[in-house]
Amino acid sequence: MKRVITVALALVVSVLFSVTAPPLARASERGPGPVPAPPGLTSAEVSFQGFGGLTLHGSVLAPAKARGPVPGVVLVTGSGAGVPREHLRTEAVEFARRGLAVLIYDKRSKGYSNLRRSYSELADDALGAVGALRARPGVDPAKVGLWGLSEGGWVAPLAASRSANVAFVIVVGGNAMPPIRQQVWNETSGLRRAGVSGSLVDRAKPGLARLGADAGLFAEAFFDAQGVLERVRQPLLGVWGGRDLQTPPEDNPRLFAQALRRGGNAHYTFRFFPGADHAAHMTADGGETRGEALAPGYADFVVSWVRDATGGRLPAAPAAFTSPIGADQDYPSKEVSPSPWWASGWMQLAAFVLFVVAFTGYPLTALVRRLRGRSVRPVSRWARLASGAGITAVLGLFVYMLYLMAAGRWPDPGPVLGGRPLPWLVLQALAVATVAATVATGVAARTAWRSPAATVATGERVRIGLLVVAGVVFVPWALYWGLLVP
Question: Membrane-spanning regions, if any (predicted)?
Answer without folding.
Answer: 341-364, 385-405, 425-444, 464-483
